[in-house]
């Protein structure tokens, strides 16, 4: 898909294609569509990012709450989005042993109790040991700093998903 094709999409097509760039937040793609034409992948990514940055804290936390837990109930039930399933699988989270799954569930619950939103991290960029390490590390950080980090991870996930859709190199975004 090239930018000319992206820029010629009507609203419905655009939201169909880019609606899950930010997990379960098609509203963001709907808002970004009005900013077309886009000069390239980087430009498109900037618009997603700017929308997130412009939200009040309640909206930013809402975005985080739209994310499924890593190796959580949705994975067990098979109800993850296709993108999330692929990402969690690439970090080895779909093949955890019972003990690791329990450890992750316990840390996820502690994280959610402390911050009020789920632990979010770009799973494709880590293996399962790194996921556990990061979770244990971020659990103790000040809430304002943690919100910033978590939103940074949402943007990384979005950048990788955009690069998948547009055939770009995410490292060069
Ligand atoms: N909780 C969480 O980080 N979920 C996300 N991470 C990722 O890479 N895909 C997701 O759905």
UniProtKB/TrEMBL annotation:
Annotated pathway: Purine metabolism; urate degradation; (S)-allantoin from urate: step 3/3
GO function terms (MF aspect): 2-oxo-4-hydroxy-4-carboxy-5-ureidoimidazoline decarboxylase activity
Pfam families, per database record: OHCU_decarbox
EC top class named in words: lyase
Subcellular location: Peroxisome
SUPFAM superfamilies for this protein: UraD-Like
Reactions that this protein is recorded to catalyse: 5-hydroxy-2-oxo-4-ureido-2,5-dihydro-1H-imidazole-5-carboxylate + H(+) = (S)-allantoin + CO2
InterPro entries, per the entry: OHCU_decarboxylase (IPR018020), OHCU_decarboxylase-1 (IPR017580), OHCU_decarboxylase_sf (IPR036778)
Full protein name: 2-oxo-4-hydroxy-4-carboxy-5-ureidoimidazoline decarboxylase
Function field: Catalyzes the stereoselective decarboxylation of 2-oxo-4-hydroxy-4-carboxy-5-ureidoimidazoline (OHCU) to (S)-allantoin.
Family stated for the protein in its record: Belongs to the OHCU decarboxylase family.
EC number(s) given by UniProt: 4.1.1.97
Species annotation: Pipistrellus kuhlii (Kuhl's pipistrelle)
UniProt main location, coarse: other
GO biological process: one example: allantoin metabolic process
GO CC annotation terms, alphabetical: peroxisome
Top-level division of the source organism's lineage: Eukaryota
Residue ranges of every copy of the Oxo-4-hydroxy-4-carboxy-5-ureidoimidazoline decarboxylase domain listed in the record: 7-163
Keywords: Decarboxylase, Lyase, Peroxisome, Purine metabolism
